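Support reply, case 0932

Customer input (verbatim):
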Amino acid sequence: MKNSPPTYAQQRKHPRIPFSLDVDWGETRACAETGRVTSLSVGGCFIETLQEVAVGKPLFIRLLLAPGSKRANEGMVWAKVLYHLPKLGFGVKFKKLPGGYVNHIEDIVEFYLSSHDDD
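Our regenerated output:
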């Protein structure tokens, strides 16, 4: 019996959950592009957008997780593009998260997973 290679999801270090959040992103802190996060983990996220982006490209993402967040530099995440799906979006690995974001994302993921255990 042949062993099949692990899927990308099986290779992930952190659990990823469905998540919906509008974000701004770009090559600079100005974050001139828009998109929507559709999945989230402590390690990264998927951003739905029609914009093209190169694999390996470093990006900034304004990820405002707290209600009422509005400051320009609040929630600024530095990430690297891991893969791109044309006309769908791209997946990123977080390289640097703002203070407290690791714990905040862990809490979001844990809450989602515990509330969906019965599914």
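We compared this against your earlier run and they match. Two observations from our side: The chain has two helices and six strands. The mean pLDDT is 86. Please reopen the case if you see a mismatch on your end.
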